[in-house]
Amino acid sequence: MALAGLILAAGAGSRYGHEPKLLADLDGRPVLEHAIAAQCSVAALERIVVVLGAHADAIVEAVDFGRAEPLVCERWSDGVSASLRCGTEALADAERVIVTLGDEPLMRSEIIARFVETPPGSRATYGGQPGHPVVLGPRQIHSLRALSGDRGARELLDGGKTIECGDLGPRGDIDTPNDLEAIRRSAR
Asked: What are the φ/ψ torsions at residue 130 (nearest 5 degrees)?
């Protein structure tokens, strides 16, 4: 398989509050469903895996995964590094993996499509600030083994190609209820 998609959605989202942020309503759908739909709309992604952890049962019950496959990371509480390893292990036969986040409902398929032909180590920037998607290849995936805790792949991308994506919209990740409300207001 040449190209796969990976959506990280395993964290507890403790800054959001007691309710799972990935199930919060945004335009009549759960937040996570927006992120999934964006990847599922990119035909070049041969396989898409959504890594779940906290609230996995409730998420599987409430979210339409389309052609994406939910995968529960048993060690999700060890941090994002564990979720990345779990997802990339499930996609071990992929040459490149495009990674996005489940709490970024403003991620659009047009943004993801910009990364279909980019080399491993590429990442998005928004107004010069780093963000997602990122593209992992064999070297970055191998290096994930050395990561622990809440360390993501950012340090593995140093020197990689950056692609400005701010022209297609803001980053828009959700950490708090105020973040979600700001996204709702901007959509109105």
From this structure: -65, 145
Q: pTM for the full model?
A: 0.94
Reading the block at residue 75, the tokens are: 């060690």
Q: Out of 62-66, 151-155, 183-187, pick the least confident.
A: 151-155
The mean pLDDT value for 45-65 works out to: 97
- Alpha helix positions (H), 68-176: 80-90, 109-113, 138-143
Position 60 pLDDT exceeds 90? yes
Q: Which of 86, 32, 85, 37 is nearest to 55 (CA)?
A: 32
**β-strand partners of 47:** 4
Pick the CATH number of 3-12+20-187 from 3.40.50.2000, 3.30.70.270, 3.90.550.10, 3.40.50.300: 3.90.550.10
How far is the C-alpha of 179 from the C-alpha of 177, rounded, in Å? 5
Under 8 Å between Cβ of 71 and 111: no
